[in-house]
Amino acid sequence: MNNFTIVLLILVTALITAFIKLAPLFIKIPDDNPIINKFFEALPYTVLTILIFPDIFTSTGTGTFNLIKVLAGIVIIVWLSLKKFSLGIVVPVSIAVIFMFDIVKLFIK
Q1: Mean predicted confidence (pLDDT) in 10-33
Q2: For helices 34-59 and 64-82, what crossing angle results, to 10°?
Q3: Strand segments (E) across the chain
Q4: How many other CB atoms are found less than 10 A from the CB of residue 65?
Q5: Which of 28, 50, 59, 88 has CA atoms 20 to 30 A from the CA of 6?
């Protein structure tokens, strides 16, 4: 890649980022639309899932106990999310559950 292509990619990326960040200033979103409200309620969970989910299966190992630990963490996240707990509760509780599984594994060895 030559320098012109790299500069062009940086400029296009900067313009897209600026448009996304400035769009709320110019686009009015109605407050009473239930579809949009549901979308914004689910957005933090979606971003968290996209960032963490692929790493869940690659960082735990291949043993049966590790698979049970991953499934328990997923079940806790889904259950707390369905009960409408905030993200500030869901993340620490799921981390604590997985940490408890690691402590149990230390005592089993």
Answers
A1: 84
A2: 170
A3: none
A4: 14
A5: 50
